[in-house]
Amino acid sequence: MDDLRAAAASAEDARILDALRAGDEKAFLALVQSLNGPMLRVASLYVSSRGVAEEVVQEAWVGVLSGLPRFEGRSSLRRWIFGILANCAKSRGVREARSTPFSDMGPRDDEDEPAVDPSRFLPPDHPRWPGHWSAPPTAWAEEQVLNKESLAVVEAAIAQLPMNQREVITLRDVLGWNSAEVCESLGLSEGNQRVLLHRARSKVRGVLEKHFGAGGGR
Amino acid sequence: MTRRVPEELTCAEMVRLVTDFLEDALSLEDRTHFEQHLVFCKGCAAYVRQMRKTIEASSALKGEGLSAEAQAELLRLFKGTCK
Hints:
A: 2 domains; B: mainly alpha; disordered N terminus
C-alpha cells in the first residue's frame, strides 16, 4: 500500500518536474499555492514574525528554483523543498537570535510534566481502585471542537509548546506528515518522536478541556 | 524471574499509553489490555475520544498563504530562471 502510494507520488512528482523544467507557469503557481501555507507554518516555527517567515519562504523558493536543474528525485519533491525551507528558516532563526539579547523561542522542553494532573487519579495506595480516575474527563460538545473559537485555542496552545514539541505536532498533526517523514526531517528516532508528540497532544487536549470546562462547551 | 504481566491497566497508565495506542506502537498484549480497559471505563473512553478530537482540531487549522505580491514576485523569478 505504501509502495503504491509512493509510486503514485513519484509519478506525480515527475509530471510536476517536467512541467517546471518546461517553464510551465501554471504548474509553478499551482505548486506554490499548494505548498505556501504549510511552508509558512514551518518557517514560523523558527523565526520571530510572520513578515520574516514570508521572506524565508521566498528565499526557499529561490533556492528551489536554482536547484531544480540538479534535483535528481532521490527524495520526494515535497521533502526536498521542505528540506531547503528548513535550512533557510533555521539559519535565519539563528541570525535573529544573535541580534536579539533574549531570544524568545518559547519555553524549553520541560521534561516530564504529567499529561493529566495527578490529583485527578485515586492514589496508588487506594484499597480498591488505585490509579483510576477520581475526576474523569467528561464528554465534550464535539460539534464545538472545530469551531473558530476552539481552533484559535488550539493554535494558541501549540504556540505555547516547547520548541521540539511544537515542531513535531506541527508536522504530524497540523500538516499531516507521517511519522517516518517527521523523524527523517527532524532527525528523531521513532520513540523520541512519539514521546514529543504525546506531550504536545496531551497539553493541547488539556487546554481544550479547560476551554470547554470554562463554559466553552456544554 | 518471571515478568509480571499486568492484568489490568490503571487509568493513569491508560493516559500515559494513549499516544502509543493511537500510533499503533503497543505490543499485541498491551493493546489488548488497553482495549479491554476501554470497554468498561467511561472516563478513559472519553479521554481517548478527546485525544482523537484534539488531533482532528490540529489538522483543521488553516494557515494563510503568501500575499499576492509575494506570489507575483515568485512568478517573475520563475520566468527569469526558465529563460
